[in-house]
Amino acid sequence: MGGAVIPVRGQYHLRGRLHQVWELLLDPEALRACLPGCEGLVPTPVPHHYEVVMTVGVAVFRGRYTGKVVVRDVEPFHRYRLEVEGRGAGGVVHGEGVITLQEDGEGTRVVVEGQVRLGGLIAGMGQRVAGGVARMLMDHFFACVQKRLG
What we know:
By secondary structure, the chain is of the alpha+beta class. Helix content is 25%, strand content 50%. The protein has three helices and seven strands; from the N terminus they run E-H-H-E-E-E-E-E-E-H. Strands 1-7-6-5-4-3-2 form a seven-stranded antiparallel sheet. A hairpin with a 2-residue loop joins strand 6 and strand 7 (107-119). The longest helix is centred in the last third of the chain and has 23 residues, at 127-149.
């Protein structure tokens, strides 16, 4: 897939023990509830593979996207690789990143490092706009995770 490549990085401090955060980040119901615009996250017969339907209402990302979410290279309570693919009227999105967890005092530090590749109409929106959208969606996701932790 050609198009724009957007680096994605973030660091979040969550008020929850490492094992609680880990379990929540891999819980399909929590993922469905916290992914912005997620209408459905359905497990497939393959472990850690999900079909996803999302409606996103930001800039040219606006619209309904269908795709898949895959969790790979799981190192329990430490890190995993997350792959997300989606297709919609605006184009194609393929994201890949490593999520790393580390105990940090009374909480857990979560570090996200990866990239998103855009194709189609959305590839033309520019790196700054796409990077801002990615950051906004990540911030929303982790704010929701924090609420679920209590």
